[in-house]
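Example record

One chain of 776 residues, shown exactly as stored in the release files.
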Amino acid sequence: MRREGTFSLSRVAGAWLLLLPGVVAFQPVFGGTPGYLPALAGITAGALVPLLAARFRWSAALWFFAILVFYLLLGGPLALPETTINGFVPSLTTLARLMQLTYQGWYDILTVATPAGDLSGPQAAPLLGGILFSAALVGIVRFTRAVVWPMLLPTLWLALGIAFGIRQAPTALWLGAALGAGLLLWSAAHRISRMGAANAEFLVRQPRGLSRRTWQGLSAMLVIALASGTALGVNVVTGNDVHRQVLRDQVAPPLKLQEYPSPLTKYRLYELNQKNDVLFQVAGMPAGGRLRLAVMDEWNGVVFNVSQNIGEYLRVGRELPWQPEVATQVSEITAQAYDDVWVPSFGEPSRIEFEGEQATRQARGLYFNRNTKQTLTTARIGDGSMLRITGVVILPFGESQREGLKGARGGAAPLARVDRVPEVLVKNATDWTQGATSAYEQLSMIEQKLRTEGFYSDGSDNRSRAGHTAERLAYMFNQEQWVGDDEQYAASMALMATQLGIPTRVVMGFYPASDADVGSGWQVRGTEAHVWVEAFLEGAGWVNFDPTPDRNRVPNSENPQPKPKPKPRVDPPPTPPEHVEDETVVADQQEVDFDDPKDQPPDWVQVAIVIAASAGGVLLLLSPLIVIAILKGRRAARRRKKGEVADQVAGAWDEVVDRARDLGFVAVTNHTRRESADDLQEGYPDLPIRSMADQVDSSVFGPEEPETEVRDSVWKQGGELKSSLLATKPWYARPAVFFSLKSLRRVGVETERRSRKPQASDRSGRNEDSTGEPKK
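Predicted structure tokens for this chain:
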């Protein structure tokens, strides 16, 4: 039986008010007045569940279903309004997504940028949390007289709001003071109420007004409140906003590479727009080193990009997951005009330390590509960010080193993933490397061809467009003069080398002019940005190639026209359009698909993922019911298989009694089976309850051990009787009976069958029960 406390609206209202500080703690995550709604709606809906349960005498299963219904009804308009019908009616999409958000929402709320009021999904977390905490708190208040236990839940609720909140907490002091005052008032009010009730019960002469002890308690409360308010005021006036440690500081945002544009798309920005801006300040630069920013080994016909395979990236700490076998060098880099996610280094870093205001977030969002030794941080590097990088320096190969590579073949490294290579580049790769006997010679011939016959332009003279799309490169090499900058020449050489089966990649970074003095420190400017090619050769590893012409090799200007003789002015005919022989050229106006369909998973995979995620959410919500069903199933199996056959026969009756208990029947521990059957028969006169009890008694206490056929027959009869008992309820109330917890509670001492297990020699004594009443 469930012990109910005397209903007090003031107790319920007080419990609800104690949850308000937790509601306010969630607000900064979403911002504005709407930021209060998810948690506030949650604690309000949760408070209604136990009140309705007390009014209509719901079972535990109906409690659970009510919580689920409130969550699904409120979750649509509050968390997923765009998926609802008319803004509030949940659709199938709404329900499926809300199931996922029962667990995913808690992770989403930690990884979204705040305020997240305009985003869909994270609001489900405080909504669900509010419903659960409020239902538990008001349930305790409604059905018990407890005072201390209800004080624990509001504290945990506020702690949850703080943990899933943000670091800046301007209301933190006020929330703590408000909850403390509320708990103090809660405790004092109950103490005063109980003292008054005791006086009313035991004193003959009732005191008028408040007692002396009551006044003492109120005075103590007033003193504590004044002291707390004074201390709080001092902190608010003299202190700054509270900055606390929260869970989002411990959780790195998910790595979504598609959100970061290719580093190479910023080359023209550095080269032209920021050519005089200081991007980095470097101390400890290795002699002859190059500051590497990004390594790119994928080309989709539009851009060269870093690997988009998320499996190649590892979330790392300061120590990277590899140990250098050669000497390392430490460099310190301070960002100024640079703002991006890519972490610069002079080679292959083995340790990275961040300093500055965002150091913690940058370190927690650090990812490392184990194939290219590329690092990035989801927190970005901006003005004021400082890095201390320890790693192996990669120096460019000098002329003497390259002399020893003339016979080198391509090494065992994966080819760059490229697609839609212009035909003119495929043809050039074959024509320009005729007679080469090794991969190194092929690369050198392509490099030399581009350096000596190409022309350089940074676009300031309108002779060179930015970009390295298939159209841009095809147009460039179908002209009499090849005009471009590092971006086009490096991309072209990498594509041609890949067509020859040589592993190559494109690297963007910075290095100073050969005559620059960087001994005391290097101020990295945009004009020092460069792009080069690296090829993997046997016995040498990654070897650098610089196919870009010297910057002073500018394209020839148009030949001057001879001065015309004085004639009547005649407008010249329009210049015919140039003929582009390459059939793979794509017009500028034509959209180029950025996503390769080959890289996308099949539709059935995406459908399977959605179904699996939805099923996972459903199973999570239904897990309490699943546990109840498993416990009852195991109990029935144990009764049918454990012990002697007589015990198994008696187990069939126990199953019937437990079904009746789930329906509301109160089992008495010291009643015999016949007495229990009589009580049940009164409630269900049309069912063969007494006849089954008699059959079980005759089998259990008979002179012979019952046969297995008798056991099977009794269990079949018991199953039919359980179904008949369940059928006495309307269809909508049957799930509450099936998942009721009443039969799982211990009644006390079990039936007489459990306390007496006679041997075969005692069969003759089974003609009477433990009370001495003869059996029929």
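Notes: The radius of gyration is 40 Å.
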